[in-house]
Structure formats: structure tokens, C-alpha cells
Specification:
single chain; 2 domains; 6-stranded antiparallel sheet; 3-stranded antiparallel sheet; 48% helix
């Protein structure tokens, strides 16, 4: 994780930020270095080697749905690109995959809906600007996909980066506890939505929030399970959701239940004592493999159905394989031996508040290979925007929220005073990142075409529409 900072005065930290600006000018972030670029399809193929073979074609198919879908799945491609660019040296805990669809709403343990980053599979320490560029370019890619004019796309990206920069500068003047407790509560955001959107779209936003409040294990039970012989069972929807009984023979099925049962026992030790006590009141009753996300497709993900006091008291957990971050090898090692612990530690450091059942462990699979996992609730008030349906003004507002949330996460883990001093009060950084984002959006379209050509030529197998 990010190392504890040596105690420096505010003046020293400001001086460090300004020195970094002298070394790496703000305008340099507008440059995209494409010299010596690796084959993007080969990078994706390198990830496929450690994934479930029959699911990899689904990943390629999902990435080929659109250039934005390709961007979502191409975190490794962009990580390799960012590593060739300018390096500020101001380190934070990175999300590692901070595109706009990895932000959204979820329920805090206090049952408030908050807006924050919600995916941390690639989290790792590294230069703060890598996350900013990943987020900004995602807005440019989405804007191109949605047909926004060039000027609107640029304003959207500039607004996002300004939201990051201005928030970081505000955090630089706050105390440590104030920064730590800061969060974006949707009840506070709603008045801003009302000022930015017309009445019809404001009403749709409020309806979406009301729907998010119902997204819990009870709602998941209604959607994902049915009652068989008096017990809830996860419904088979191959290849996306497949109960363990349909994957292997009886001996492997029994071994899987035993292994995941053992995983749960040891995983509990990573939870707070009160949450461990709560989890022990539930009994695991069914397991299924689930295909999740775009970039994560092919990693092993299990949904675990538990029963509490009766069949109407369910709990769904997701156990998701944690492989090495796409940033691994590109930045200094964070020292974690368990990749699940890396994900959990990064999430807890960056998020304002995290799932009460967030934990990690390691388990041997049916193939005899030991893998790292992290666990959390499958659904807990989670909701995200449908990028393809967003209008330009809505994306501008959303992008600014994402920039603010990212700044808060970075302010918790890095030297916010030095970063704020580096960014300064002008819009030079905003403009540079906007230049980079548009250039990278064009590069992403080229990479998308290369993957499509590889699928047509038979180099990769892509199952579209799943």
C-alpha cells in the first residue's frame, strides 16, 4: 500500500508539488506516447492464459459490442500505454481501472446511498495522474460512441478534470479527519441534479435511486433463484450463470462445496468480529458460477446463496478471483502476497465506506490450482448509469461527480497538499488531459478495430451478444 508519509510541513509539501510541476510540466500530460507500443490483441491474449477457457470468447464478444465496451475491457492495454508517458512521482492508491462505469451508487452500512468508485480489481499504488487519464479518456470514448460533437466532448472532459483538481485543492486545506470522513451522499447530490437537469430527467434520476434502494439480497433472490423441494436454488442461465451441479461430476461437486466451505471459515477471520458473528448466523445452501463485467470475464467468480432464519432471509455473497493488477510490473510492488487482500486493502483505503462483508482468502480449485479471492455482497443498493443512454449535459454532470469522487479517494491515500500544489489553480492540467483523452479515444477505436479483425480472421474466438 501507499507508505506512511514522512512528517513534512505544509510549506515543504507545497514546495514538493511545485518542484514536480517544474520537472513534469502540466502541458506534458497532453502527450500520448505511442512509440514502442505492444500489440493490443497480444496483451489481451496474455490475460486469457490464466482464465476459464470457455469464458474467454464471451469476454472478447463483450469487448466488441462497441469502442466503449472495448475500452472497459482494455485496462491492461492502457496501463502499458500510461507507463510510457510522463511520470509525476506523486503516488496514491490507484483504482487502476477508473473508467466512468466503475463509479456508481451503493448502500453504506448506515443504509445511505453514496456515490463512489465501486470496482477495485486493479487497485495498486502509482502516479495519481494515471487514474485521472483513465477516467477522462473513458468520457471521451463514451462521448464519441454517443455521437457528441467535439466541443461538447471536450467540455465534458474538462469539467471532470476540473472537478478533480478543484476538489483536491479543497481537500488540501482540510484536516486529516475531515478528508477521511468526506463522502458524496446522494441526498446531498440530489439538489445539484435538480439544478443541472430538467424536471423529466430529474424525476428519472430519483426513480433510479429509489430502485437502487431495493437492490439487495431479497431482490436478488427473486431474480436469481427459485424454490426446489422447499429450498432456494440459483436458476441456471448458461453460460452466464451455471450452478455447480452442472459443471462437474458428483465427486468434484462435493469437493467444491467442501473447498468453498473451508474458504468461508477462513475468510471470516478477515472480517470485523461483529460482522463475523452476523455471517455465522447464515447457512450456505447453493453455489453457482457467474460471468461478471467485461474486463473480468473469464476470471473465476462464484455467487454463494445463504439462508438466515428462513427462506425469506437470504444473503448473496460473490467470491471473485483476484489476479495480479494490470499495473503489476509497471510500478513498484506493493508487497501483497494475496491478491484478494490487495483488492480489499485498496478498496478500504479509497472508498468512503465499504461493504460489511468485504474480505479475502485463498482456496484450491477443482484443477488443483490455488487461487486468491475476495468476497463481498452480490448486491447492496448498487446502481450505475447506462452510458449509451446519457445525454451530453447528463454526462457532463456525471463526469464532474466522478472527478470529485476520485479526488477524495486520492486525497485519503496520497499527499493531497503536494498534488494540489502540482495541479495549481489554472485550467492548464484540465486542457492537457482533454487533449490526451481525445487522442486516446481515437487510439482506442484503432485497438477495437484490431480486435474485431482478429476475431474475423479467427485469431481469437469472440462470442457476441452474451
Amino acid at each position: 500500500m501507499v507508505e506512511t508519509m514522512t512528517k513534512l510541513s505544509r510549506a515543504d509539501r507545497v514546495a514538493a508539488g511545485k518542484a514536480a510541476r517544474a520537472s513534469v510540466p502540466l502541458e506534458s500530460h497532453g502527450e500520448f506516447v505511442d512509440r514502442g507500443r505492444a500489440d493490443p490483441v497480444a496483451l489481451l491474449e496474455s490475460q486469457a492464459a490464466a482464465r476459464v477457457p470457455e469464458l474467454v470468447p464471451i469476454r472478447y464478444g463483450r469487448m466488441l459490442a462497441s469502442p466503449f465496451a472495448h475500452y472497459r475491457g482494455g485496462a491492461l492495454i492502457m496501463a502499458a500505454d500510461l507507463a510510457r508517458g510522463p511520470s509525476v512521482g506523486l503516488t496514491v492508491q490507484l483504482c487502476g481501472d477508473a473508467h466512468m462505469s466503475n463509479f456508481g451508487i451503493y448502500a453504506s452500512p448506515e443504509r445511505h446511498l453514496v456515490f463512489d468508485i465501486n470496482d477495485f480489481d486493479e487497485t495498486h499504488q502509482g502516479p495519481f495522474d494515471w487514474d485521472v487519464k483513465r477516467l477522462a479518456a473513458s468520457l471521451a470514448v463514451a462521448g464519441r460512441d454517443n455521437g457528441y460533437p467535439v466541443k461538447k466532448r471536450r467540455r465534458i472532459v474538462q469539467g471532470c478534470v476540473a472537478g478533480y483538481r478543484e476538489s483536491m485543492r479543497a481537500f488540501a486545506h482540510q484536516g486529516n479527519l475531515a478528508v477521511w470522513y468526506s463522502h458524496l451522499d446522494m441526498q446531498d447530490v440530489l439538489p445539484q441534479i435538480g439544478r443541472q437537469l430538467d424536471a423529466q430527467r430529474e424525476a428519472k434520476t430519483r426513480a433510479a435511486l429509489d430502485k437502487a434502494r431495493t437492490r439487495d439480497s431479497i431482490q436478488a433472490l427473486e431474480k436469481l433463484a427459485e424454490v426446489v423441494d422447499g429450498r432456494p436454488r440459483i436458476v441456471s442461465r448458461p453460460p452466464l450463470v451455471v450452478p455447480v451441479e452442472e459443471l462437474w461430476d458428483e465427486a468434484q461437486i462435493a469437493a467444491t462445496y467442501d473447498r468453498l466451505g473451508a474458504l468461508l471459515v477462513s475468510y471470516r477471520r478477515t472480517l470485523q468480529r461483529d460482522r463475523r458473528h452476523l455471517l455465522e448466523q447464515f447457512e450456505m445452501v447453493h453455489i453457482a458460477r457467474k460471468v461478471v463485467g467485461v474486463g473480468s470475464v473469464g476470471t473465476r467468480a462464484w455467487i454463494l446463496l445463504f439462508e438466515g432464519v428462513d427462506g425469506g432471509d437470504p444473503l448473496f455473497l460473490q467470491a471473485k478471483e483476484a489476479q495480479k493488477s494490470v499495473l503489476s510490473g509497471l510500478v513498484r510492488s506493493n508487497g501483497f502476497k494475496n491478491q484478494g487482500e490487495r483488492v480489499v486493502a485498496g478498496q478500504q483505503l479509497m472508498q468512503a465506506t465499504s461493504d460489511i462483508f468485504l474480505g479475502w482468502d485463498r482456496v484450491q480449485g477443482p484443477d488443483g490450482v490455488t487461487r486468491d479471492f475476495y468476497l463481498r455482497q452480490l448486491r447492496d443498493g448498487k446502481a450505475s448509469v447506462v452510458v449509451e443512454e446519457m445525454l451530453a449535459d447528463g454526462m457532463a454532470f456525471y463526469g464532474r461527480l466522478c472527478g470529485q469522487a476520485l479526488a477524495r479517494a486520492h486525497a485519503r491515500s496520497g499527499d493531497r497538499v503536494a498534488i494540489a500544489a502540482y495541479l495549481g489553480s489554472s485550467d492548464r492540467f484540465d486542457n492537457a488531459i482533454a487533449d490526451f483523452a481525445e487522442t486516446y479515444a481515437v487510439q482506442n477505436e484503432r485497438d477495437y478495430t484490431e480486435l474485431d479483425d482478429a476475431a474475423i480472421a479467427g485469431r481469437v474466438d469472440a462470442h457476441r451478444g452474451l
